[in-house]
Automatic annotation (TrEMBL):
Residues 474-498 are annotated as: Disordered. This is Chromosome segregation protein SMC. It comes from the Bacteria.
Length: 498
């Protein structure tokens, strides 16, 4: 018992985390917004409606969502279900408030839990919506955790379970959560096996009661067989996604331990999906055969109802006219029914008692690998920003070793010559100087106070070096960069060290 409590706790907590954002959002009160004008709104209903909207757009229609599309949907929901009659501006303010809460103001929801194996407090991050910028437009999509949460809240009977699970598998592959993708395929195989068992039950029922079997067959066609074409398309689509992920991994030059582990997971996921596709194809063939057998059973039942009795006089006339005694089979076969009671002969009993049982096969030992730590997109972005900011500050300090005073244009020209003109197209280059201009005076190196986001990065990276004191002074004239944008001219001047 104690071993189960300790070893299973982390897995249970990670399974619970997908519910955390919903209950966190349930605590959101409209009483503090617009002086309580919208206190009658229910955040739980609104969240579930938005999740269903994103699943419909992202997965069934296979397109991301823009903010105007979300605004149209939430406006119609508030108007229809809560009877609100507001102006366009008021609808937009209310929609903005709800959207900020669901996005958690751009930050992931943090789910804390205790790991008894590592004996430390861990934090897992969950996002409800994900965003990406393409063609100067922000596109939104639902996360795999949010899809899994929505599917767990209710069994979707109007859609194929296999199709819905494959939509979740697509999200897992795109998020590079290949271990989670294998768990989704297990559920797909379970659903295929359930449909196979249901097909066998219908065939058995057709042999006993044709009419009850026909009713069960029609229900099976409505709830299972009508989705086969869509399921086959989704299988092929996920197969292409896996092949794309495999090609991307094989093209990477770096081959570390994590690289080979991820490559192994992709191969395993590909083989599991291939097995699922094979089983699904076998189910399709079996259902086609069942359809033919059902039609034959219906035909025999109709024929039996038409011939509910036999005319012995007509049969005798046919025997005499054709001089064919084989027609007596129609008269005698109903009488010669098989015996219901069966018994074993003594020879069969002796043979059954003397058969040697097979030796038990050795169980295969399966070693479970620990789940791979997933690096989230916001963590990767934070690492990139820290690396680029440290790189730019190193070059700025190197420039002070050559000159005590220089301008931003001179520094940019030197960076372009030293590295590449493409460095001036990097967004982190400009965001670095935007953050740097929050203060007019800096001391880089040694123990300094952290007053801003940039100070936190620089204090950790340059704590061991000799302090450098410099000032930043903006000039009124502007400098035109090579790119189609205008940047303010800055003057950097080194001072005596404090």
């Amino acid at each position: 018992m104690l071993n189960d409590i300790i070893t299973e706790h982390k897995e249970r907590m990670l399974n619970l985390k997908k519910y955390y954002p919903f209950f966190k959002l349930m605590d959101v009160s409209f009483a503090q917004f617009q002086e309580g004008r919208y206190e009658m709104l229910d955040m739980g209903y609104i969240v579930m409606g938005i999740l269903r909207f994103f699943i419909e757009e992202n997965n069934f229609k296979e397109k991301d969502v823009t903010y105007p599309e979300y605004l149209d949907f939430i406006t119609s929901l508030l108007k229809r279900d809560f009877g609100l009659n507001l102006s366009a501006q008021e609808y937009k303010e209310l929609a903005d408030y709800i959207f900020d809460k669901i996005k958690n103001e751009g930050r992931p929801f943090t789910f804390p839990y205790y790991d008894p194996i590592e004996k430390k407090k861990c934090i897992s991050r969950i996002k409800v919506l994900e965003s990406a910028i393409r063609d100067h437009t922000v596109w939104y999509s639902i996360s795999s955790d949010a899809i899994e949460f929505y599917l767990d809240t209710k069994e979707i009977k109007e859609e194929s379970r296999i199709s819905v699970q494959q939509l979740l598998l697509e999200k897992m592959i795109q998020a590079q959560n290949f271990q989670g993708g294998k768990d989704v395929i297990v559920r797909i195989n379970e659903e295929v096996a359930r449909l196979q068992r249901r097909k066998n039950e219908i065939m058995e029922l057709l042999g006993k009661d044709v009419f009850a079997g026909i009713e069960a067959y029609e229900d099976f066609v409505h709830t299972g067989m009508r989705w086969f074409d869509e399921e086959e398309k989704l299988f092929k689509k996920n197969k292409d996604f896996i092949e794309g992920a495999l090609a991307k991994m094989e093209a990477e030059p770096v081959q570390s331990e994590s690289y080979y582990r991820t490559l192994k997971e992709i191969y395993e996921l590909d083989s599991q999906l291939q097995i699922a596709m094979t089983r699904h194809g076998q189910l399709l063939s079996a259902c086609t055969q069942m359809q033919q057998m059902t039609e034959e059973a219906v035909k025999r039942a109709k024929l039996g109802r038409l011939r509910s009795h036999i005319h012995f006089g007509a049969l005798l006339t046919d025997l005499i006219r054709s001089d064919n005694a084989g027609l007596l089979e129609q008269l005698l076969s109903p009488v010669l029914l098989p015996h219901i009671k069966k018994r074993f002969t003594l020879d069969s009993l002796d043979e059954a008692l003397t058969v040697k049982p097979k030796q038990a096969e050795a169980a295969e030992k399966v070693e479970e690998e620990p789940p791979q730590e997933i690096q989230f997109a916001d963590e990767m972005e934070d690492q990139r920003i820290r690396k680029n900011y440290t790189f730019l500050m190193n070059n700025l300090l190197a420039a002070f070793e050559k000159r005590d005073t220089f301008t931003l244009s001179e520094f940019g020209a030197a960076m372009s010559r030293m590295y590449s003109p493409d460095i001036l197209k990097n967004a982190d280059y400009y965001s670095f100087f935007v953050n740097l201009c929050q203060k007019q005076e800096y001391v880089i190196g040694g123990q300094t106070e952290n007053e801003s986001f940039l100070d936190d990065i620089l204090s950790g990276a340059f704590a061991d070096r000799e302090p450098v004191h410099f000032t930043i002074t903006p000039k009124s004239a502007g400098a035109q960069d090579e790119q189609p944008m205008e940047q303010s001219e800055l003057v950097f001047e080194r001072k005596g060290t404090k």
